[in-house]
Design a protein that fits this description.
The protein has about 425 residues and is mainly α. Helix content is about 70%, strand content about 0%. The chain has two domains: about 130 residues, no CATH class; about 200 residues, Farnesyl Diphosphate Synthase. The chain has 23 helices and no strands.
């Protein structure tokens, strides 16, 4: 008996068919990309869970895919200001972030029945901003993303949200998160590298935590009439952001950014020596700092699980979205721990990125919320969160492991035999 015989739901084929980043760049040379295509161009890891918002949604659940796609693309564009290469000065980066947050605010405040959006897109402010971010693009994908964002498709989608029911409130939630991110980014850029653990936690709150409470929870409350805990949503965002900071430590170092708190690099060792030194003291300090970053991440696992468990089964699209993000985060964390500090701090691709199992992860995130109404979704999340090594997403191991797990659950939950 396989998964099909057990009644495991099969995800739609559309979840697994999409152009690669290279293909999207070629497409962008012939026509403007859609918001969906921009999302896939910039983030393969978030593209899948955002698709799940649509394909796994419950019968009466609001389809959040468009709103979250718009929000993600807007925040990625703003992020290009912070992540810009050394071609841009700190002053240019701050101006770009601040200017962009004002532009988003202008779009949000425009009357959707008027003609204001074309004026904003064609304005010297927006076009100057676009050219500046192109100048600071760190790679070909960032450059293509910024160029395409400058065409105005995403801003038009944001503008048109105002025509929907609760559209004004949804636009204001996106504006709120954009400005929250701007506060965190500008504070970081103007103050310089993060020096204390408290500063790190505050940065994660402004950059990621507010998205959980200010956008995602707001959407659920507005459109699905479900109120979830804001603190747990912020801890979930923090969990994901801390993983992102840890796995990107080498890339950030090369570009001149430091999110690792300076107080963790104590003694007479410089950050540069810790990153590039070959001596035993540099290796020891890498391990010490890595272990502390791992602890910060793991401190938020329980809260993240509690948040996802609190999502009602009827909101299967949102639950699948959260499941995918959490499970990929756990897989990334596990990979980094197994690889060790030296490889992670050296930016070894095999040490920081999950190169396999995305298909299995997509299948699981979709199926676990759909199988028998999601009755086992919380149990699986709890078990995997506590012991990621217990379950494999590798091809050839995933189907058998999931089948055995379901059979055990079915056996446990069978009614007692009649006497």
């Amino acid at each position: 008996m396989g998964l099909e015989e057990l009644g495991w739901p099969t995800p739609p084929a559309e979840l697994f068919i999409w152009p690669s980043q290279k293909e999207l760049i070629e497409i962008s040379k012939k026509r403007d990309l859609t918001s969906d295509e921009l999302l896939a161009l910039k983030s393969r890891s978030f593209f899948k869970p955002i698709q799940l918002l649509h394909f796994a949604k419950g019968d009466d659940e609001f389809d959040k895919r468009l709103v979250v796609t718009i929000a993600y693309n807007i925040m990625r564009e703003q992020d290009e200001g912070e992540d810009a290469s050394k071609n841009l000065s700190i002053e240019d980066k701050v101006w770009s972030i601040q200017r962009f947050s004002y532009i988003v605010g202008d779009v949000v405040r425009r009357d959707p029945n008027g003609r204001g959006i074309d004026f904003i897109i064609n304005s010297s402010d927006f076009q100057t901003l676009t050219q500046k971010l192109i100048q600071g693009a760190s790679d070909e994908f960032a450059k293509a993303f910024v160029e395409q964002f400058g065409k105005g498709t995403v801003l038009k989608d944001l503008y048109n949200l105002g025509k929907e029911q609760d559209g004004k409130s949804m636009k204001e939630a996106i504006d709120y998160c954009t400005k929250s991110m701007a506060v965190g980014m500008i504070t970081f850029l103007e103050r310089g590298p993060i020096e204390t653990v408290n500063q790190l936690h505050n940065y994660c709150y402004w950059i990621a935590g507010r998205i959980g409470s200010g956008l995602l929870n707001k959407l659920l409350e507005l459109k699905d009439k479900v109120k979830l805990d804001d603190n747990l949503a912020e801890r979930f965002g923090k969990f994901l952001q801390l993983i992102n900071i840890t796995k990107n430590v080498r890339a950030d170092y090369i570009e001149g950014r430091r999110f690792i708190p300076g107080e963790l690099i104590h003694g007479n060792i410089s950050y540069e020596y810790m990153m590039d030194g070959k001596g035993l003291d540099a290796q020891y300090r890498k391990k010490e700092v890595f272990d502390k970053m791992v602890k910060f991440i793991e401190d938020n696992i329980g809260a993240s699980i509690d948040y996802i468990k609190s999502v009602p089964s009827k909101l299967s699209g949102y639950k699948a979205f959260c499941d995918f993000c959490f499970l990929l985060g756990q897989m990334t964390l596990q990979k980094m721990k197994e690889s060790g500090a030296e490889r992670v701090f050296n930016g070894d691709e095999d040490a920081i990125k999950v190169q396999h199992s995305i298909k299995s992860l997509t299948d699981l995130s979709y199926g676990i919320v759909k199988y028998k109404g999601g009755i086992y979704a919380n149990e699986f999340l709890e078990e995997y969160g506590q012991n990621p090594k217990k379950f494999s997403f590798r091809d050839g191991e995933y189907e058998k492991g999931l089948e055995d797990w379901i059979k055990r659950k079915e056996l446990i939950n069978q009614p007692p035999a009649s006497p």
